[in-house]
Amino acid sequence: MSDKDQGVSRRQFLNYTIMGVGGFLVAGTITPMLRFAIDPVLKADAASDMVAVGDISEFSSEPQRKDFTLPVVDGWAEYDMGLSAWISIDEAGEVLALSPICTHLGCAVTWEGNESHPNEYYCPCHDGRYTSDGVNIPGTPPTRPLDTYEYEVRDGVLYLGQPVQR
Question: Which fold would CATH assign to domain 46-164?
Answer without folding.
Answer: Rieske Iron-sulfur Protein (2.102.10)
